[in-house]
Amino acid sequence: MGCGRRLGGAGVSEENGEPDGDVEPAEGLDPPQGDLTTTESVLTAEATPRFERAARRADAWRGFFFAAPTYLYMLIFFVAPLGIVTMYSFATRNRTGGTDLEGWNLASYARLDEPIVRTIVFRSLWLAVVTTVICLLIAYPFAYFMATRTPRVRNLMLVFVMIPFWTNFLVRNYAWRVILENDGIWNDTAEATQTDTVVDWLLDLPHWMQWAIPDWIENLPSPLFSEVGIVLGLVYGFLPFMILPLYASIERIDLSLVEASRDLYASGRQTLRRVLIPLSKPGIVAGSILVFVPSLGAYVTPQILGGDKETLLGSYIVVQFLTARNWPFGAALSVVLLGIMLIATQIYFRNEGRTL
Question: Which CATH class is domain 113-181+224-355?
Fold first, then answer.
């Protein structure tokens, strides 16, 4: 009992659990390699704050190098042009139509309060809001119907939504121009359905009865080169941008909540207002931003379908750069438009952008 017995060649005394003085390693086992003190220091260093900070710093640098090409692209093709436009907005237009990049002033921004500028801005805002509302009214029931179908039908409908993107945007606008011309399909349909006769009857009503008739009703039989034609083109062009976010949001809704609301004797309108709309709010906000922002600065569609009668903000900016040769004023308009878009985007990301 007094002599300790070695276990497994490890040289540990059975009596007191302490290693023997001179112990030989067991046969077939290699002696330990390296410095045991160094290994212990490495293991204990993992838990130190200094080591964790170094690891986080290494991960941050690794992520930066992976994203460096994207940062460089954004710096060259976004930040630099935006800086140039902002710089020109504080410059001065000389008598020959050139731009003097000295004597910085706010004269271009002071012109934003001119009546013609206010009219163009309000008209652009109004048409952008109308386009957004119409797209929402059309896209919401379509997205709900698509989200509640079988996967096969759903995928087929998604293909139909994406088909317009397979054609150039300019070609699609010229196709609408052919449709809306005097001898086009729209005019022939209006004549066949006697729409022009109804519009003429409405316009012949007494003056005191015409207060409830919108101004665009007179352009309904022939909407080309009018606000009606512009809205038709914008709705057609940006409708997929409303459908896709709404579909992604509605698809995630647990439809058993809709069934539960009907079991609790809620009407269809109450279910829509208290269940579907609150749960699909991220899609509504995302789609509205994606439609409103490009509609506000649209140039191609108003130029082709609106002509010179309906000048919007995008067309007015192009005129300042190419025709009037007033680059500072055009740059100031561009900066204001970009500011409105950035504010709308920030509102989206701060409120509902994280939940979509």
Answer: mainly alpha
Are 11 and 20 a contacting pair, CB within 8 Å? yes
Q: Give the residues across from 99 on adjacent strands.
A: 93
pLDDT tens readout for residues 240-291: 999 999 999 999 888 888 888 888 888 888 888 888 988 998 899 889 989 9
The string of pLDDT tens digits covering residues 86-102 is 999 999 888 887 888 88
Q: How many CB atoms lie within 10 A of CB 314?
A: 23
Residue 85 token pair: 């436009």
Interatomic CA distance for residues 243 and 251, integer angstroms: 12
Strand, helix or coil at 151? helix
Question: In one letter, which amino acid is 185?
Answer: I
Q: How far apart are CA 68 and CA 74, in angstroms?
A: 10
What is d(CA 315, CA 298) in angstroms, rounded to the nearest whole number? 8
Distance from C-alpha of 156 to C-alpha of 167, rounded to nearest angstrom: 18
d(CA 150, CA 168): 31
- Provide DSSP, 12-25: B-TTT-PBPSS-PP
Residue range(s) in the chain whose domain bears CATH number 1.10.3720.10: 113-181+224-355
> Using 50, 70 and 90 to split pLDDT, how confident is the model at 203?
low
Report d(CA 65, CA 58) in Å as an integer. Answer: 11
pLDDT tens, residue by residue, 156-171: 999 999 988 888 888 9
